[in-house]
Amino acid sequence: MSGSASAALPQASLPPRVIGPAADPPCRSTSSDTSMEELSPTLLGAIRQIVAVALREHVPVVAPPRLTPPPEANVLEEEDEEKAPVPVPPAGRRHDIPLPGPQEVPPQWLARLEHLQKGLQDVKYQIEGAPEDERKGVPFTETVMADELPLNCRTPAIAEYDGTTDPREHLSCFENAALLHRYTNGIKCRVFVTTFVRAAQQWFNQLPVGAIGSFQEFRSLFLHQFASSRKLQKTELSLFDVRQKDDEPLKEYLQRFNAAALEVHAATQEVKASAFSQGLLDGDFFKSLAKKPVSKFDALLARAAKYINMEEAQAAKKGTRGEKRKEIKDETPSKKPRIDTRDRKPPFQRVNAVYTPLTVPITQAFIAVEEKGLVTRPRSWRDTPQRPKSDKFCRFHNDYGHAMEECRHLKNEIERLIQNGYL
């Protein structure tokens, strides 16, 4: 019996279970390593599905948490235990896949996805057009509205257009500014309309929806609508009407002629030289041109500069001599008896004069006709005023001694302009 017991003892004895940290954990078997290798393609497929779903729905995606093997159990598992298969979620079910929280999303991923979302919105805007509320009542087409406004876009600093001035001048100013800012076709249309006021703005608001598909179309409609406000183009013949006035310095005549020549775009050098020569008074410069004519206007200007300097030097010399004579005359005591002039009329005022009533002060009327070049200066006009002998100043004579309201010469000149139909 003891022999049978001793013989059965080796068969009944099992290796003891070791519990506690004293024993080394058993190593995984070859079957466990094989299960992990089979599981890797499945996990990679799940990660790809997570990224695909997140990109399709604009959900920020981060790398999934690192898979760590579960802690070793204190109790040894059976080596022949089968591993449960990892379930793979279907492709279309987003809520079955746990997503990271906002605090776990890296900032660079958020910025990248926001940029992608904005790009998708821009593509949708170009394909489907502007929203209905933006297209309502706007004369621009969807193509014009699709151009995105730059962040640094600024309205050009040009004058507003109300429909009363030349449309070509306003359009030229805007196109130069648009060239500087590099506006696209759509931006040109939308910025150009911001320069409209009053009648121009009312005309634009009455245009039908979708009437403007490009800036070229907008340009043509604008010029056609306000064609009546265009300035009349002056011809070369208008330059022959510009003539030097009596007692007008050569410098002032040249300035008036140049201003008139700027309005004649097709004027040639020969025509301008001929017109300027015919408008000259019979003076030193006219005699010089008669002796030695010039065919080019530029050559004429070079010769005119010499005579302008001569006239200014002569005028300055006359002014100096006049001041000296005046000083000597003031220092010499007068032998004539003094006459009481308290009851006399102001100087240069005509007795019983009858003038056409003016609707504005005479000073304002003088400024208006002076700017138009209609005033004929009196013979006593001075380039440089003399030493003040009174607080009153007459701009018509450019001298002190009386006010413009008292000037008989100015009143006669204004009356002459009225009778000739200039006022």
TrEMBL record:
<protein>
    <recommendedName>
        <fullName>Retrotransposon gag domain-containing protein</fullName>
    </recommendedName>
</protein>
<feature type="compositionally biased region" description="Low complexity">
    <location>
        <begin position="1"/>
        <end position="16"/>
    </location>
</feature>
<feature type="region of interest" description="Disordered">
    <location>
        <begin position="1"/>
        <end position="37"/>
    </location>
</feature>
<dbReference type="Pfam" id="PF03732">
    <property type="entry name" value="Retrotrans_gag"/>
</dbReference>
<feature type="region of interest" description="Disordered">
    <location>
        <begin position="65"/>
        <end position="102"/>
    </location>
</feature>
<feature type="region of interest" description="Disordered">
    <location>
        <begin position="314"/>
        <end position="346"/>
    </location>
</feature>
<feature type="compositionally biased region" description="Basic and acidic residues">
    <location>
        <begin position="320"/>
        <end position="346"/>
    </location>
</feature>
<dbReference type="InterPro" id="IPR005162">
    <property type="entry name" value="Retrotrans_gag_dom"/>
</dbReference>
<feature type="domain" description="Retrotransposon gag">
    <location>
        <begin position="191"/>
        <end position="281"/>
    </location>
</feature>
